[in-house]
What we know:
The structure holds two protein chains of two kinds. Chain A is mainly beta. Chain A has a single domain (2-223), classed as Glutamate synthase, alpha subunit, C-terminal domain (Pectate Lyase C-like, 3 Solenoid), CATH 2.160.20. Chain A contains two helices and eleven strands, in the order βαβββββββββαβ. Chain A has an eleven-stranded mixed β-sheet with strand order 1-2-3-4-5-6-7-8-9-11-10, with helices on one face. Chain B is of the alpha+beta class. The chains are: A mainly beta, B alpha+beta. Chain A binds chain B through residues 32-35, 51-52, 54-55, 71, 73-74, 89-90, 92-93, 111-112, 130-131, and chain B through 248-249, 251, 253, 266-271, 277, 281-283, 285-286.
Amino acid sequence: MASFNLADSTVRELNQHLHGSVAGKVSVDNPGGKHSVAVGATDAHDVEINGNVGYYCAGMNAEASIVVNGHAGPGLAENMMSGRVRVTGSASQYCAATAHGGLVVIEGDASSRCGISMKGVDIVVKGNVGHMSAFMAQTGRLVVCGDAGDALGDSIYEAQLYIRGNVESLGADCEEKEMRAEHKEALRGLLESAGISEFSVDEFKRYGSARKLYNFNIDNASSY
Amino acid sequence: MCGIVGLYAKSDLIRDTLGQHVGAMLTQMGERGPDSAGAAFYSESAANSKVTVQHDESAHIDSIAALVGQTIPDAVLRRRGTHLVIESPGTQSDMESWVREKFPDLRVMSAGEKIEIYKEKGHPSEFVSNYALSEITGSHALAHTRMATESAITTSHSHPFSTGLDLCLVHNGSLSNHNRLRVKLADAGIRFETDNDSEVAAGYLTWRLSKGDSLRQALAAAIRDLDGFYTFAIGTRDGFAVLRDPVACKPAVLAETNDWVAMSSEYRAIAQLPGAEKARVWEPAPAKIYTWEGNQSGEVAA
């Protein structure tokens, strides 16, 4: 197992290890809120970070499984391609922004703009998400076991949103949709992958695009 | 960008080492604001009032100190960098007026019972060492590192900005309606030294408070009247308050242990504090006012 103590070694040393060495277990101590911890992994490393991280942790991740035993700052798993990211605490703004694939699990809350412009990633948040979450979300799935803040799914495309709690307000062109058997099945699979067993899929509502704002139509001008 | 740090001591251990911790936090925020730095420290006064003044020429500050010493024999005078703290038996507002009248070429950084504001252009790490922050003790402090985006880099353009007796403001963000608001506030008698947007936010709070608003009322009104992006931290005689705009693009993180309450733009500043790894850490919600005063904490929707 490779170990990095970020009180002594640099973030670059850690990240270079993740860019080419044979995949294996990697342990990271004393992250101290540093930026760009475990960014750009290209192989199926199994990374465990003990402590709170700053901006852009696990960005551009491909294949690796990254666990943060603590909180994550803004931009967690930004543009992730594949693999898994789990945060045992909460994540700050725009978590999993523009992410193409893989699974992001937040055991606490995710703040504003969670899943903004998501492009295929699956996100499961055990707590709440802040305002403007899933803004312009293109594809992928966002599961929120708690509440969602203002303007959920504003200008959403084809991403699917499953929310268990209260939605403060829906953004433009986002609407509640029927929860059919195939959706319950999909949600069951997502919760299982995330290791969350305390909630029933029957407690969730599904939201998605009303598909009215895809193309500009003068009759919809007031909705933009 | 810009970086903010705030620290409120809940134990004697932190009170006795306040400046050392604030210095370590501020240094971490140097990358967010390499152009200038400043800090407001709150500690008991040896007398009734404290006025902090500044002049770019050190020799001039020396001569002012000598003059003040002759005029007010009871005054306790302390030099730090280009700043002079005058502690005296007079009332706080009388002392401030007296200094402004007698020494119009000095910048009055702050006035009150407990507050001392120091600020200087240059990298925050230089500020921390040149101003020997590690020597300073006190109950709480706010500090700022500035990356100038909309107005000049000078000492006057640096944060914190005084907003009245024992009050100050630091800001990360940018305001878009500050020019019109500055004209309006100047007509109402608020004094501005610079064309800086954050100084307008400070002036706005000064104006609201002078009209009888509580700090909470003034901040709630600020959400309505200030257009732009902001995380504000406001220092008060007994603590500090934090407010983010409703869109909340500018970062902020809060943390608390049995020994301290801390606020910063980023966790890596808080990570410098003893026991940070065990602290309760959370992100303040948009448009919500968070306060700590005399071991009383509160959160209210603005």
